[in-house]
Design brief:
mainly alpha, 2 helices, 95 residues
Length: 95
């Protein structure tokens, strides 16, 4: 259980924190951490939005392909519809 993150032990982590404190000071370090946290939050949000947009695009493409493959009405049914439509139009003209 000697390794924590990225293969670093407690000694390395303490050394990194000490160096950061020396470079930036105790007052600046919380501001840096806050900025880093906001950057990570924005990155995750953008990543999630991108994944959702990709999924929506895939679903739209799939729906579009299914609509193109949908069966067309039989020729006899289409002929009956056109005859009934023509008859109702001629009835409307004679009235």
């Amino acid at each position: 259980m000697n390794m924590l993150m990225f293969g670093l032990g407690w000694g390395e982590i303490v050394l990194i924190i000490a160096v950061l404190l020396l470079f930036f000071g105790a007052k600046k370090l919380p501001e840096l951490a806050k900025g880093l946290g906001q950057g990570i939050k924005e990155f995750k949000k953008a990543s999630t939005d991108m994944q959702q947009e990709f999924q929506r695009s895939v679903e739209d493409t799939h729906t579009h392909q299914v609509q193109q493959v949908a069966p067309t009405p039989a020729p006899a049914a289409a002929a009956e519809q056109s005859k009934s439509g023509a008859g109702s139009q001629s009835d409307a003209k004679s009235a």
